[in-house]
Every structure is written in structure tokens, then in C-alpha cells.
Amino acid sequence: MKNYLEKLKSYIETHPIQFDDDCDFPALDSLYWHYSECHNMSNERTKQASADLSAYLSDLSRKDTDRVFCLVGALCAEHERIALFAGLQLGAQLMLELQQEAAGE
């Protein structure tokens, strides 16, 4: 495993990835956006919430309804991204704690 990590580190150092400059966690951000592009993130609850939102917005013009949906979509995407980051960080912390526990045995 150590040899693999050394090779990976060397490869990353010699082949850096070009990320956007406006992101605090570029690797996690890229992982989230690529994952979410390939995996459907909706279920029955999100479909029902979308239908409910449409019903509440039915008195607005189509243009205004589209604007609201775009804002809501952007807000939901950001919450999904934050949740993914937190889940990965939690998983990494759990892995570290398990390794510490195993080393102590």
C-alpha cells in the first residue's frame, strides 16, 4: 500500500490537475459534480416536493416559475455537495479512528 501511495503521489505531482480557482476543496468538488452528472439523485420524496412546488407556483408566469426552479435547483445542488463532502470527511475520520484502534491492539 505504501508503494502504491508513493507512486500515486509522484504521478499527481508530475501531472497536476487543473481545477477552478474558486473552490476550497477542488478534488471533492470535482468528485461531486462528476458523480451527480452520472447518477440520478431523485426519489419519490424529491419528485413529490417538486410537484408540490410546481403547484404553489402555478399562479406565477412560466418565466418566473422557471427562475424559482433554477434558484431552488442551485440551492439543492449546493446542499448535496456539502453533504457529500461531509460524508467523505466522516468516512475518512472513521477510517483513521479504526486504523488507530487496530494499531493499538
Mean pLDDT value: 86
Number of strands: 0
- Give the % helix: over 70%
Order of helices and strands: HHHH
Principal-axes shape call: elongated
In what range is the share of β-strand residues?
Answer: under 5%
**Regions with pLDDT < 50 over 5+ consecutive residues?**
none
Number of helices: 4
Structural class, judged by helices and strands? mainly alpha
Radius of gyration: 20 Å
- The N- to C-terminal Cα distance equals 20 Å
Largest sheet, strands/sense/barrel? none
Structure description:
There is one protein chain. With 105 residues, the chain is mainly alpha-helical. The chain starts with a helix and ends with a helix.
Structure summarized in a few sentences:
By secondary structure, the chain is mainly α.
Question: Which key features would you list for this structure?
Answer:
mainly alpha, 78% helix, elongated, 4 helices, 0% strand, 105 residues
Explain the layout of strands and helices.
Elements: H1 2-14, H2 26-38, H3 44-56, H4 62-104
